[in-house]
Design brief:
Layout lengths: L2 E9 L1 E7 L3 E8 L7 E4 L4 E7 L6 E11 L8 E7 L3 E8 L7 E4 L5 E9 L6 E11 L8 E7 L5 E8 L7 E9 L15 E11 L8 E7 L3 E8 L7 E8 L16 E11 L8 E7 L6 E4 L6 E3 L2 E2 L2 H4 L8 E10 L7 E10 L3 E4 L7 E8 L6 E2 L4 E3 L4 E4 L13 E4 L2 E3 L13 H12 L21 H9 L8
Parallel strand pairs: 21-30
Antiparallel strand pairs: 1-10, 2-5, 3-4, 3-6, 6-7, 8-9, 8-11, 11-12, 13-14, 13-15, 15-16, 17-18, 17-19, 19-20, 21-26, 22-23, 24-25, 24-27, 27-28, 27-29, 31-32
Length: 484
């Protein structure tokens, strides 16, 4: 009997894998629901998990996850979009246009379906045919039909095959099969011990009718064994450390590398490997922090009223007559809050905000852990980080400008395509932009004020009609601060 095999996979869970040395904890959450983040302890240095998504509504979702190392530092957040499919309860299929002779099957599981359909094609003639599949959803509706074409060929009898490497047909290997077969999978384990580097394997099959098939070819690379490695820190190749080892194909650095010669703070490790023919691999690199280095938190944030375009803000301090540095925009207060309710303030630092949006905050070295960051400006809406940020013994960077989701509640305004900023116009700093702010602005305009005033929304040094549009727009949009 002729058989045609089809497969269908409907998956309602997510599989993630992550491997890293010294991992002790993991955390993940779906969409923007960080409040219900799920944490767990890792029992080994390898994390393989199926994250259950059955509680989510059908449609597109996003999972975010991060990992905690043994020194207490969290990795960067990694995100992945996925589709939660509509659950199906049955399916039907038919061949060619013969819908009247369709086959109907009920599903036996809701979470995952692996349906391998052995379709009886014995009655079909040689040539092209079609297989049509349709699934029934839990709401009773049927999906659109999915059609796949296939070909029924005349029966052949394969009795042997041969293969060779590169252009060396003279040294081909020929294999006779114990019994002729209609279909043949070339899954033979081939001895390539004498090969080094990139090569091509060619193979073909023979039919009893004395006809050879078309030659099929596949490129591959024969990996050489490693005999030694050397590593160095930063750009100091002259201080490299070299080690030899028994010839192996796979290598894992164990025990850990000696980093005592690296300076405190952030460093870059460079490493390369030498193979059995004396060739060195490409240089691999990875950043790391050694002990108690620079522990500052650098943030990047733009202010809506001061933003001029192309990633730069106005030199507001200079415009308002209280500074002479053209690269200085203004000052901001950055608060570090506990990650749990009531989100108490741990420490506050005033930082110089540069025109490129960067500000470096030097919190106490003794403070380590994950904290929310809130940014305050004299005419901006207080803005919080979307999630707690880890502060350890090495520098940390957090960018509020590259996506609205970096702020808690997505509380940012797009000032340029793909560029986000804090809302401007909260002159009285009550965490709302409303008529009270407009009243202050109107009064200051009437008094023709100029200089260092919060009501100078656009930072040009004058309080005038040019400061009104942003404030009025945010007032009409009912802009207010969002935080836990």
């Amino acid at each position: 009997m002729k058989k045609v095999i089809f497969s269908l996979l409907a998956c309602c869970s997510i599989s993630l894998s992550f491997a890293q040395n010294n991992l002790v904890e993991y955390q993940y959450w779906f969409d923007r629901n960080y409040a219900n983040a799920i944490s767990g302890v890792l029992s080994s240095n390898e994390f393989l998990a199926d994250l259950p998504s059955t509680s989510l509504q059908p449609g597109e979702h996003e999972v975010h996850f991060r990992f905690k190392q043994s020194d207490g530092q969290w990795s960067s957040v990694t995100s992945q979009k996925f589709l939660r499919p509509i659950e199906m309860i049955a399916y039907q299929y038919w061949l060619d246009n013969d819908y009247a002779d369709k086959n109907f099957v009920n599903f036996t599981t809701q979470d995952e379906l692996n349906a391998y359909l052995m379709v009886n094609a014995n009655s079909l003639t040689a040539g092209e045919h079609s297989f049509t599949f349709q699934a029934k959803q839990t709401n009773g509706t049927w999906s659109s039909p999915v059609r796949q074409k296939f070909i029924i060929s005349n029966k052949v009898n394969i009795d042997r095959y041969e293969f060779w490497f590169d252009n060396d047909y003279a040294n081909k290997t020929s294999v006779n099969l114990n019994a002729s077969v209609a279909y043949f999978n070339f899954d033979t384990l081939i001895d390539a011990a004498n090969l080094v580097g990139a090569h091509t394997i060619h193979y073909r099959t023979h039919q009893q009718e004395a006809e050879w098939s078309t030659v099929l070819s596949q490129k591959f690379v024969k990996q050489n064994k490693m005999l030694a490695y050397e590593y160095w820190f930063n750009d100091n190749y002259n201080t490299k450390i070299s080690n030899s080892m028994i010839a192996i194909s796979d290598f894992e650095l164990s025990p850990l590398l000696d980093v005592s010669s690296a300076p405190l703070g952030s460093n870059t490790l460079f490493i390369r490997f030498k193979d059995e023919v004396g060739s060195w691999s490409q240089v691999l690199s990875n950043g790391f922090c050694r002990n108690e280095g620079d522990s500052a938190i650098t943030i990047k944030v733009f202010l809506e009223g001061y933003y001029q375009g192309s990633g730069l803000m106005a030199s507001v301090m200079q415009n308002q007559g209280v500074g002479s540095d053209p690269l200085l925009c203004d000052s901001i207060d950055v608060e570090m809050h506990q990650s749990n309710s009531p989100y108490a303030i741990v420490e506050t630092q005033r930082a110089a905000l540069k025109t490129d949006g960067t500000a470096k905050c030097y919190f106490s070295p003794a403070i380590n852990g994950s904290y929310f960051l809130s940014v305050k400006h004299r005419n901006g809406i207080q803005t919080w980080s979307a999630i707690p940020i880890y502060k350890g013994n090495c520098p940390t960077f957090y960018d509020f400008t590259n996506t609205e989701t970096k702020a808690f509640g997505d509380n940012l305004v797009e000032v340029e395509n793909g560029v986000w900023a804090m809302y401007s116009g909260d002159i009285n700093q009550d965490e709302n932009i409303d008529l009270l702010d407009m009243s202050i602005l109107d009064t200051d305009m009437s008094n023709f004020l100029f200089g260092y005033f919060a009501s100078d929304i656009n930072g040009d040094g004058n309080v005038d009609l040019l400061d009104s549009p942003i404030t009025e727009a945010n007032l009409n949009s009912f802009v207010f601060s969002a935080h836990p």
